[in-house]
Amino acid sequence: MKPAMVVPVNTRRRFVLLLLALTCFSQSLCFGEDRITFSTPINDSETLLCKSGVFRFGFFTPVNSTTRLRYAGIWYDKIPIQTVVWVANKDTPINDTSGVISISDDGNLVVTDGGNRLVWSTNVTVPVAPNATWVQLMDTGNLRLQDNRNNGEILWKSFKHPYNSFLPRMNLGINPGTGENLKLTSWRSDVDPSTGNYTAGLAPFTFPELLIWKNSVPIWRSGPWNGQVFVGLPDVESLLFLDGFNFNNDNEGVSSLSYANDSFMYHFNLDPDGAIYQRDWNTSTKSWRIGAIIPSTTCDVYGRCGPFASCNPREVPPCKCVQGFVPKNNTNWNGGSWSNECVRRTPLRCERQSNVSSIGGGGGGKGDGFLKLEKMKVPVSAESSLANEKACPKQCLENCSCTAYAYDRGLGCMLWSGSLLDMQSFLGSGMDLYIRLADSELKTSYETKKKLVETHSKRAIMITAPVLGVAFVAAVCVRLACMKFKKRPEAPPKDQSAEILFKRMEALTSGNESASNQVKLKELPLFEFQVLATSTDNFCLRNKLGQGGFGPVYKGKLPEGQEIAVKRLSRASGQGLEELMNEVVVISKLQHRNLVKLLGCCIEGEERLLVYEYMPKKSLDAYLFDPSKQKILDWKTRFNIMEGICRGLLYLHRDSRLKIIHRDLKASNILLDENLNPKISDFGLARVFLANEDEANTRRVVGTYGYMSPEYAMEGFFSEKSDVFSLGVIFLEIISGRRNSHKEENNLNLLAYAWKLWNEGEAASLADPNVFDESFEKEIQKCVQIGLLCVQEVANDRPNVSNVIWMLTTENTNLSEPKQPAFIARRGASEAESSDQSSQKVSINDVSLTAVTGR
To answer: Where is the Apple domain (predicted)?
Structure first.
């Protein structure tokens, strides 16, 4: 037997170190790292994987390509269909698998081929050392080049150089000062990522719009942004999936648009055919589901019918000159050549006066007026005016070149001069457009409509008269037959509470909307009390989910198996039918992914109950303030919860058919579904505003102390900014995992403690230790800053909710410095009650609350 070999100690140490190095390298190849440094480039067979595992960066060849060309790009990982969202060397591919992605000697991220030939670079001109920069692939799909020497300053990011995909948290924007215009650019074909013929982005109009261009020629536009939507998108609700765009337009003219969504499996894509597709990943079918296609009809094509003509895809032919205008060339028009222009049939009065004065004499005739076109995509190239709604038409009439006007609350007065191009008629959305016409044309329009009504009336009489005659004879026969039978005893009178409730609720809301637009409250399901009692096991204590100001909430299960939450009015709650009515009125008219859904109600005798969808994770405070559950809410989840609350609140304030101030926004009123998505609940104290109201005043203080804004708690003024204050408190509670009532060092409440840390430059220290991570430090600090901006003393200093969303979802935003927050002392319960007793009934849009106490 040979003697055993003796391995020297140093050799063994080197061997162990080598094994460790190989292990780390193996893990890098298998699981992916999210960073590239000067010493760790990646070759063709290696990739970067972001921490969430959603996106991957590396080399790829397009599916179905007949070539072996290699491109450096970002794609969705773990999705069986190759979906590339960004390409670096789109016009300079590598012919083989020799490519390398690395940090160059000047600190840039570069792509080189096997001959070390540079094929792409970030081209950052700031002088940096190679070992001072690194590249990271973020969970959003954003590739960032950062400088180690300057607190991780971002030198370059792919989101600033978009290609064909518009991802959540990304911006499209215009900066007139720098000339920067972030646009989407299509691929040349499905298998060729090189620069295509189409681009899409914001156009630098007076009222910003989205446009698609083909070789710099516009082929589609969205219509102007009115503060909530692009008014030229008729199917905006299906397009946005109730998530919406964030739009920012600052004082320097910088406009930016971002599409924010809780899921990174949503994106817009500008395809090689020039159409924008909205896609989201369907996990059940393992395929991309198309949510919207732009353009979607022939009428969406820019200028389809030429000047002074409107397009309607539901009519044949789709193009028609606006009333008062006729085709310039009837032969071409009838042959389907609609771009030859419609011309005015009767000159405007000022035009007639100008023509007459040039040859002598007077103009004569009456003045001009306006023809109203409803539900329109307004023309391109509107000019802005400071005139109010009443002065807008007058300002147009005073200018002979003005051909139309429109007024929108979010846009103000819009005026058009010269030709009116790219008009479209919609079925259920759009704006009212007023076309300027000569008085004689308006008379012709009136006479035509009058004759049409008379014709329809005659037809209606001819049709209905025989029908009414037959119905009358039938009614007489039925009456005579009934008289032969013995009269039966009447049924005992029913409990009329439900009927009275619905009549009162309809009266409450009738002032805010037209009858055609009101939700039919009687369609809300009415549950029998016995059904709800059985479903909750007779309101058994073990089924009790919690206790609110309205009363206890129980978990139940309907006979068909649906789980529900039943809120039962407590006689001792200090709240009654008015609050129940208020909640039903408000929530029955609302539908949003971040609002709890009302399934029905029960009114029998003295019982008042509301039935909601069941939220298995209960309320946010159950996780935030319970040490045993805090770890369940990691930072990403908390961030998504903050964003979801904002989206629900934005819907209440701006996007719903009612304008609603919640007035009791707090952690316990934020419910969580099975995926920990937030849903705002408890609308018993909410107020409905008229469309032109921004704030109101009341002497009764309702809500929850600690979340109430100073102007509301002390003076009774409430507005959107009151809810924003509550939102800021919730932000700070989510970040810290502490209640606002919790006392910190030196007996400071949470707002004061956050302010102290902010002034000391230690804002990130506020974060719950269970979620703090250095990689999230900047984001945590930004969220603290946003929270402090929301709780500033003066209401006008606070941002509105849309700005909060924009700040949350936009990277590298230069936020304003917060001012000292309000530190509100609690009033005693007795003081709050006495103020209630002496208060007068206050009504806003006839929705009022009575006998409500602070809690």
So the answer is: 350-438
Radius of gyration of the chain (CA): 33
3-state secondary structure of 73: strand
Task: Indicate which residue of 664, 682, 768, 836 is catalytic.
Answer: 664
Place of tokens 């982005």: 201
* Per-residue pLDDT tens over the stretch 255-281: 666 654 545 677 899 999 999 998 888
CA distances from 642 to 149, 639, 723 (A): 32, 5, 14
Sequence-distant (6+) residues with CB within 8 A of 354 are 400
Tell me the one-letter amino acid at 592: H
CB atoms within 10 A of CB 491: 6
114 Cα distance to chain centroid: 46
Query: 622-652: buried (b, 16+ CB within 10 Å) or exposed (e) per residue?
Result: bbbbeeeebeebbbebbbbbbbbbbbbbbbb
Q: Residue 649 and residue 304: Cα distance in Å, rounded?
A: 39
Distance CA 648, CA 656 (A): 10
Instruction: Return the beta strands (E) in 386-529 as ranges.
Output: 402-408, 412-417, 423-425, 431-438
Q: What is the distance between the alpha carbons of residues 202 and 221, in angstroms, rounded to a whole number?
A: 9
The yes-or-no verdict on residue 479 having pLDDT over 80 is no
Task: For 295-401, list the strands marked E by DSSP.
Answer: 309-311, 319-321, 325-327, 342-344, 368-377, 383-385
> 586 or 808: whose pLDDT is higher?
808
Nearest residue to 677 (alpha-carbon basis) of 141, 247, 243? 243
Spatial distance between the Cα atoms of 382 and 389, rounded to a whole number of angstroms: 16
Among 322, 328, 302, which Cα is nearest to 310's? 322
Amino acid at residue number 519: V
DSSP letters along 206-245, please? SS-EEEEEETTEEEEE---B-SSSBTT-TTHHHHHTTT-E
- C-alpha–C-alpha distance, residues 392 and 471, integer Å: 52
Spatial distance between the Cα atoms of 325 and 425, rounded to a whole number of angstroms: 16
Neighbouring CB atoms inside 10 A of 291's CB total 16
Rounded mean pLDDT, 505-521 = 41
Residue 303 near residue 221 (C-beta atoms within 8 A): no
Task: Give the angle subtended at the CA of 231 by the CAs of 229 and 232, to the nearest 5°.
Answer: 125
Is 836 one of the annotated active-site residues of the chain? no
Q: Which of 71-85, 128-142, 742-756 has the lowest mean pLDDT?
A: 742-756
- pLDDT value, residue 662: 87
> DSSP 3-state helix, strand, coil percentages of the chain (rounded to 5)?
30, 25, 40
Q: What is the pLDDT of residues 88-98, one digit of tens each?
A: 999 999 999 99
The 8-class DSSP code of residue 792 comes to: B
β-strand partners of 37: 40, 134
Which run of H or of E encompasses 753? helix 750-759
Q: What is the pTM of this model?
A: 0.56
Please provide the size of the chain in residues. Answer: 855
Secondary structure element (H or E) that encloses residue 809, with its range: helix 801-809
Cα–Cα distance measured from residue 812 to residue 528, given in angstroms and rounded to the nearest whole number: 55
pLDDT, mean over the chain: 78
Query: Encoding tokens for residue 337?
Result: 């050549």
CA distance 286 to 290: 13
pLDDT score at 390: 93
CA dist 651 and 559 (Å) reads 33
Q: Which helix (H) or strand (E) holds 195?
A: strand 192-203
**Residue 40: CA count within 13 A, CB half-sphere:** 17
Q: Of 428, 611, 584, which is closest to residue 520 (Cα–Cα)?
A: 584
**How is residue 170 written in tokens?**
């990304």
Q: Which structural domains are found in the chain, ordered by start?
A: 27-161 (2.90.10.10), 165-296 (2.90.10), 300-351+365-445 (no CATH), 520-614 (3.30.200.20), 622-855 (1.10.510.10)
Question: Which positions ≥6 away from 53 have C-beta within 8 Å?
Answer: 77, 78
CB 809 within 8 A of CB 647: no
* Matching residue, tokens 């940096």: 128
